[in-house]
Structures are given as structure tokens and as C-alpha cells.
Design brief:
It is a single chain. With about 400 residues, this protein is an alpha+beta fold. About 50% of the residues lie in helices and about 20% in strands. Strand 1 and strand 2 form a beta hairpin. Helix 7 packs parallel to helix 11, helix 8 crosses helix 10 and helix 10 runs antiparallel to helix 11.
Length: about 400
């Protein structure tokens, strides 16, 4: 009996070794001596080899003599000889005629005197993993194809929307200009011949043409915001807010309003679009504080772990908190058009721009008769924080 056989058959270790080998759920293990005879193997190896063995195999049988396929015998001998020569290596094998794939880790077996007494192979059945990888690859290819198709569809849809916006601008504004212009000419040329009611009705026609023109402009603006591609860059938000306030406020408004701009943090975003956010929110605050005593507009911000929240407060007419959810809907108004000008699209545009940036919007009435509109933007490294 060889020294390797003595080691594997020792009563003190044989039963424990067999239990360990058979208890490994996914490993296919076998050991051979220098004459290619089995020293040990586990149940997983017996199961894996049942289609290539020519008979019931037992410890002491030669692996090479048991194999029915000459080609497999040649491959197995080459790998065993590498391990017997002292090499440790990994190889992959596909079982002939099947989709079964194994990864084998070969290494020499040493005795206490550091002499090579055999070869050990620990294999893993990669069939399911390989199948899953192939499915993932096919899925990725399919997703990529669908992404390309959807990208093309989205591009086509955006082109159609842009065309639609252009057609609205051209095809609807032209007749509105005609209605407005001819109403003005009729009033100028025939006004004295009309009674008061006739003059009033012509004025109503002209005014509504102007309002319709404003609605069309806002609708086109919302469409174009919806198909805009973000071009994010670092933004000095305090400078932008100050500039947009002074651009939105008339000299009369500026002299009447106490404008308090806090030390708000910078952000990353599309400057063209975010200017529209500030412009709409400031225009809103200016409009609804008109006529109020001691007009105040305040800008402040706070940060959390993932976002920056910008707040615009004013002491305007306010609204009922029960209807705050309606404020950001297109053409939704909580105040009459007669009292406050506007088509009701500005806040819808704000919402769309902020959502394009991955943020949220909201509004509420605070204690002390203060109105607050707010929007959030994600924090980034460029805005002075770590990426979430």
C-alpha cells in the first residue's frame, strides 16, 4: 500500500474525511495517487462521472482505466500529470455532448516530508451560473436593442412635439393677432357709431385674444421644457436668485418690497431652466404681494443628507392649504384672472423643470400669514456634499 493510500485509509481519519467530502454541497472532489488510482472521491463526483465511467467505481481503481471516452482520458491524464509535477492551476471543462460546464482546481498532494504523493481536484459545477450569465447577456442585448428603439421613438416623439409647438405658435397666433388687430381697428374706426355695450363687447374680444395668446405661449413653453435635454453645470445659486429677482421686479416693485436673500447653497443644474424656476416663483410672489402693506419676499434654504431645499416666502394674499396640491397643475388657478393676471402655467413649468432635475416642489401657508413655495434639488459633490 502506498503512503498516500495509507493516509486516506487510516481509521482515525477515513470516516471524518468521507463525511467532510460528502457534506460539501456544491464541490466535486477527488484525489488520486501517482498511478492515477482513486484515493478518495465524494458523492458529487460519483454523480458527475456516472456517464463517463464504464462500471461501478471504487477506491483503488484507476480513473483512466474507468473512463470510456479516449479523448477524455487524454485530457484527464494531461491535467493530472501537471498536478503531479507540482503545478496548481484552474481549468474549465465542458462535458461532451451536453451544456454542463465545470471549473476544476488542480493541486498536488504532499506528505509530511513535502513529497508529492498524488493530485487533488476540486471542481464546481458552473452550468447554472453559465446559463444565468448567458441569459443576462441576452437580456442586456435585448435591453440595449429596446433602449435604442425607444431612444429613436423618443427622439421622434420629441421632434413631433417641437413641430406641434411650432405649429401652435404659427397657426393659432396668426388668427389671434388678426382678431386682436381687427377689434382694435373697429373700435378706432367705428367706435363712435357703437353704443357702450357694443364697445364693451369688442373690448372683451380683444382682451380674450390677448389672454389666449398668453395661454398659447405658456403651453408652448411647457412643451419645450418637457423635451429639453439637461445641461448641468455648477451654479452659484445666490447670484442667480438675486439676478432673477431684479429681472422680475419692476422699479416700483423693488422700491416697495423688502427683499431678503439668505446665504443659500450652490447646486448643480441646468442654468437656463433653473433661471425659469426663479423667474416664475419671484413673479408669483411679486404679483400676489401687490397692494399688500409692508411687502416682503424672503429666500432661504436648508440641506439634508441627499438634497437642498430652496424656499421663497412672501406675505401675499396666500391660499387655502387644502388646495395646495392644485397649484402646480397646468392652468389651475386659486385666484380669479380678473384680480391677478396670468394663465396658470408658470408653476406647472416650475414643477416640470424641478422634476427633470430629480427634485420635488411644494407650497404651504405658514403661521403669521406667510406663503412659502419650495423646491428641492439633489446634493452633489459640486454643491458641497458627498454623492448619496
Amino acid at each position: 500500500m502506498s503512503r498516500a493510500s495509507e493516509f486516506f485509509s487510516a481509521d482515525s481519519s477515513a470516516s471524518l474525511l468521507r463525511a467532510i467530502l460528502d457534506g460539501l454541497p456544491n464541490a466535486i472532489i477527488f484525489a488520486l495517487d501517482r498511478e492515477y488510482r482513486y484515493l478518495a472521491f465524494n458523492r458529487k463526483h460519483r454523480s458527475a462521472m456516472r456517464d463517463v465511467w464504464n462500471a461501478t467505481v471504487k477506491i483503488g481503481d484507476s480513473l483512466l482505466d474507468c473512463m470510456t471516452m479516449p479523448s477524455l482520458r487524454v485530457l484527464a491524464k494531461a491535467s493530472i500529470d501537471r498536478a503531479l509535477a507540482g503545478e496548481s492551476f484552474i481549468e474549465r471543462q465542458e462535458q461532451t455532448g451536453t451544456d454542463i460546464l465545470y471549473e476544476l482546481r488542480w493541486q498536488p498532494l504532499y506528505d509530511a516530508d513535502d513529497l508529492i504523493i498524488g493530485a487533488l481536484s476540486i471542481a464546481a459545477d458552473l452550468t447554472e451560473l453559465h446559463s444565468a450569465q448567458l441569459k443576462v447577456e441576452r437580456l442586456n442585448i435585448d435591453l440595449e436593442r429596446r433602449g435604442i428603439e425607444r431612444g429613436a421613438l423618443l427622439a421622434a416623439a420629441n421632434e413631433e412635439l417641437e413641430s406641434f409647438a411650432s405649429n401652435i405658435t404659427h397657426d393659432l397666433k396668426a388668427p389671434l393677432r388678426a382678431i386682436s388687430g381687427y377689434s382694435a381697428m373697429v373700435l378706432e374706426d367705428y367706435g363712435p357709431k357703437l353704443d357702450v355695450e357694443g364697445q364693451r363687447k369688442l373690448t372683451v374680444i380683444a382682451d380674450n385674444a390677448v389672454k389666449m395668446n398668453a395661454l398659447i405661449c405658456d403651453l408652448v413653453a411647457l412643451i419645450r421644457v418637457g423635451i429639453a435635454k439637461l445641461k448641468p453645470v455648477p451654479i452659484a445659486m445666490r447670484d442667480m436668485a438675486r439676478a432673477m429677482y431684479h429681472e422680475s421686479a419692476s422699479p416700483e416693485d423693488s422700491s416697495a418690497i423688502a427683499f431678503d436673500l439668505g446665504d443659500i447653497p450652490d447646486c448643480v443644474g441646468d442654468p437656463t431652466l433653473l433661471r425659469k424656476v426663479w423667474a416664475n416663483l419671484f413673479s408669483n410672489a411679486i404679483k400676489f404681494t401687490t397692494g399688500r402693506p409692508g411687502r416682503v419676499i424672503e429666500v432661504l434654504a436648508d440641506t439634508s443628507g441627499t438634497e437642498i431645499k430652496y424656499r421663497i416666502r412672501d406675505n401675499g394674499v396666500g391660499f387655502d392649504n387644502r388646495y395646495a396640491h392644485k397649484l402646480f397643475k397646468l392652468f389651475s388657478r386659486l385666484h380669479s384672472g380678473e384680480a391677478y393676471a396670468g394663465a396658470g402655467a408658470g408653476l406647472a413649468i416650475v414643477k416640470r423643470i424641478v422634476e427633470l432635475h430629480g427634485g420635488k416642489v411644494g407650497a404651504e401657508m405658514l403661521k403669521g400669514e406667510r406663503t412659502e413655495f419650495w423646491f428641492t434639488l439633489p446634493r452633489t459633490e459640486a454643491s458641497g456634499s458627498e454623492l448619496p
